[in-house]
Specification:
336 residues, alpha/beta, Rossmann fold, 7-stranded parallel β-sheet, 6-stranded mixed β-sheet, 13 strands, 35% helix, elongated, NAD binding, NAD, NAD(P)-bd_dom_sf
């Protein structure tokens, strides 16, 4: 069997650990890795030379846009595997129209997001951040002891999951050993499908009203932008927590900040819109906000899963087996 020519295109500083030496050696066994140094643009002399031979293109974070000129520049190209999450903004429609197969490693990125979410849920249920702040501020337990008598903790609480996405489903799976009542809002699922996942299907208003902890896992689509608005936030219980590891655009952040400033609810926020809040944003200062810089997804060594999944897809493709994570053009309107 001929070994296909493989080309890489991604930003090295953003993809450290994605393609460590063992993955590069594996790719060079499956195919011929033309150059271990990834392309950072697709329109210079080096890119033209490599693309003219390429049969497989592996992209990642920071990859240049794979535009409508690529089918002509890479006439032998048969497969593109994105060793990261979404291909939106990376792969042009012309790639699908040219019959080039596209796959991605979003499932690998879903693992650490779900793990981070589970940790956030457990800490939110225990109100761990408020306990920490009071304990550190007082250097005694005068205020933390009475809090332990409140109706908090992770037994018998009601948890609302918004979106039965790949991450949403992973979170639900991770929650199975715990004693939560699960509510699920996803307009694409019926009640029986929700029940099979172990959750009660509800509308969004009911979820916001009933849940002690609300966790967002919906894709960013025109229909989901600001789906959590001032009215939805007003439905939340006093003392409830909102967790967002999906996309900042899902929430009307002005409305969220107004609600948070009352102290009525808490929030664990890993994603914002814009990606980095203004320096004067209250997200940085509010005591009832736990803010992280978009770290729920694969960071550090967790990125190794992305490269492994990409190599797996290349291997499946070359052996004629069905891909596990192929993306078709018609899927793009409904995925993150």
């Amino acid at each position: 069997m001929n070994r296909p020519a493989i080309v890489l295109a991604m930003e090295p500083s953003r993809t450290e650990h994605v393609l460590p030496d063992q993955i590069l050696r594996r790719l060079d066994t499956i195919g011929r890795l033309l150059d271990p140094e990834p392309l950072q643009r697709l329109d210079d002399a080096r890119a033209r030379r490599l693309l003219s031979e390429a049969e497989i293109l592996i992209t990642g974070w920071g990859a240049p846009y794979v535009g409508p000129e690529i089918p002509a520049a890479a006439p032998q190209l048969r497969l593109i595997v994105h060793a990261a999450g979404t291909v939106k903004g990376i792969i042009d429609d012309a790639i699908f129209e040219a019959g080039i197969t596209v796959s991605h490693s979003a499932e690998a990125n879903a693992v650490p997001v779900a793990e981070f979410t589970l940790a956030a849920i457990l800490f939110a249920g225990k109100r761990a951040f408020r306990f920490r702040d009071l304990y550190v501020a007082d250097r005694n337990r005068d205020r933390t002891y009475p809090m332990q008598r409140e109706a908090i903790g992770n037994y018998g609480r009601t948890l609302g999951i918004i979106g039965a996405s790949r991450i949403g489903r992973r979170v639900i799976e991770l929650l199975k050993p715990f004693d939560y009542r699960l509510l699920l809002f996803d307009p694409m699922l019926d009640a029986a499908e929700a029940a099979a996942l172990g959750a009660e299907k509800v509308d969004l208003d009911a979820l916001m009203r009933r849940a002690d902890i609300v966790s967002l896992h919906a894709p960013s689509l025109p229909s989901t932008q600001h789906m959590i608005d001032a009215r939805k936030l007003s439905l939340m219980k006093d003392g409830a927590t909102l967790i967002n590891t999906a996309r900042g655009i899902l929430i009307d952040e002005a409305a969220l900040l107004s609600e948070l400033k009352t102290g009525r609810i808490d929030a664990v926020i890993d994603v914002t819109d814009p990606e980095i809040p203004d320096m004067g944003s209250a997200f940085y200062d509010l005591p009832n906000v736990f803010l992280t810089p978009h770290i729920a997804g694969a960071i550090g060594l967790e990125r190794g899963r992305l490269g492994e999944m990409a190599a797996d897809e290349v291997e499946r493709f070359m052996s004629g087996r069905p891909l596990l994570y192929q993306i078709r053009r018609e899927n793009l309107d409904n995925i993150a």
